[in-house]
Every structure is written in C-alpha cells, then in structure tokens.
Amino acid sequence: MMDMILQTTNLCKSFKGQLAVNNVSLHIRRNAVYGLLGPNGAGKSTILKIIAGMIQPTSGSIEFNGHTWKRSDLADIGALIERPPLYDHLTAYENLKVRTLALGLPKQRIQEVLDIVQLKNTGKKRAGHFSLGMKQRLGIALALLSQPKLLILDEPTNGLDPIGIQDLRKLIKSFPERGITVILSSHILSEVEQIADHIGIIASGYLGYENEIQPGTDLESTFMEVVGTYREVN
C-alpha cells in the first residue's frame, strides 16, 4: 500500500450555490510530485486553496500525514498560489527576513532556502527588478522557510520563458529527494508530464482521472476524453 501524505474524500466547494469542486477524492503519495491537470476554470486552484487553508470546503474531508487536517498542519504545508507575496522594494534576503521574523524561524533558514532556489548571489538587487522566473523562485523560497512536508504550487511556470521553465522544472523535481512532497497545478500537459510522478485530471469540478504516469501513456488523449466527458455532464 502506498504511503500517502494527503488524501481528500468527497471534497466539495460551492460559491453562491454553484459547485466549483464536486466530490473530489485525491491521493497524494509521500515524497513524490503530483500534477493536478485541468483546463482554466476547472477547479484546480480552489482545491489547492482548500488544502492550503485559504478557504473552507463546503463538505468533505482532508487527511494529512495520517490524521484529519487541522489548522496547525499549516506549519508543515508551504504554498505559492497566484502571485508571489513579495515586497518589490526589498532584496531577496530582506523579503525572506520579514517572513522569518513573522514566523519566529531561525535566521539561518534564509541562506539555506536562497541556496535551494539558486538566488544566493542576487545581492542588493530589489525583488521588483527580478525576472518573472526569479520572482517565482523567491516565492518558492518563502514557502520553503518553515521546512514544509508538503509544497503546493499553483501554475508555477505560467508566463515563464523556456529557460525559466527549465530552471523551475529542475528545482521542483529535486524536492522529493529533500523529503518534500509537491502538488502542482497546470493546464500544460507536456510540462506536467516531465515533472510529475502521478496525475489527477480535473474537469468542471470533477476528478475524472487519477493514476501514476506510465511510459507511453497518451496523456493528451486521456485529458481530452476526461474534459469532454465532464463538459457533457454540465
């Protein structure tokens, strides 16, 4: 039996009576990369925000690290959802220092995470002058400060150039070796295929497919079949 760090059971979320997430049951294996695939508006970000404690589910349950999810578990969950929460007038080091002071974390973590995301040589350059790829990596550094067991990344390669995507892909693939499980969302099939060990495909709020990525899997056909099926449901 696989060692699961997180499972959701019949997770639902509605907004003004409209179901955005419909009975979703995810199975996230420990020390792996899980790709949550789906078209824009499928419900991916809503699911990630629920797991990250940003919004509450309408119904359903979450099990984290062998017990029912509770607010204190957020100490073990890092997240980068939407734009990185950066102070543009501060350096990378200063941005991280603000977070360590707020969370009461040891100062030594700043250099450790700067090294992990390869931003230790940015010196006095302010975050507002960083490239988009650098900003994404600094956002990930902020999420890593508390040494999380689970890292949530929502569309992390959006807007990046090919070099930025390659750098971020390499970084994400290194996390399981550090004891960090990753859930990332994307609508780019080829990108997830190169990073993830397992995938779930969300369409119209439903989880239509979940499995390990096998060599030779025709992910595009599977994706289109799931999206087409659940588009007809609605």
TrEMBL record:
<feature type="domain" description="ABC transporter">
    <location>
        <begin position="6"/>
        <end position="229"/>
    </location>
</feature>
<dbReference type="Pfam" id="PF00005">
    <property type="entry name" value="ABC_tran"/>
</dbReference>
<dbReference type="InterPro" id="IPR022501">
    <property type="entry name" value="ABC_Gallidermin_ATP-bd"/>
</dbReference>
<dbReference type="InterPro" id="IPR003593">
    <property type="entry name" value="AAA+_ATPase"/>
</dbReference>
<keyword id="KW-0067">ATP-binding</keyword>
<dbReference type="GO" id="GO:0016887">
    <property type="term" value="F:ATP hydrolysis activity"/>
</dbReference>
<dbReference type="GO" id="GO:0005524">
    <property type="term" value="F:ATP binding"/>
</dbReference>
<keyword id="KW-0813">Transport</keyword>
<comment type="similarity">
    <text>Belongs to the ABC transporter superfamily.</text>
</comment>
<dbReference type="InterPro" id="IPR017871">
    <property type="entry name" value="ABC_transporter-like_CS"/>
</dbReference>
<protein>
    <submittedName>
        <fullName>Lantibiotic ABC transporter ATP-binding protein</fullName>
    </submittedName>
</protein>
<keyword id="KW-0547">Nucleotide-binding</keyword>
<dbReference type="InterPro" id="IPR003439">
    <property type="entry name" value="ABC_transporter-like_ATP-bd"/>
</dbReference>
<dbReference type="InterPro" id="IPR027417">
    <property type="entry name" value="P-loop_NTPase"/>
</dbReference>
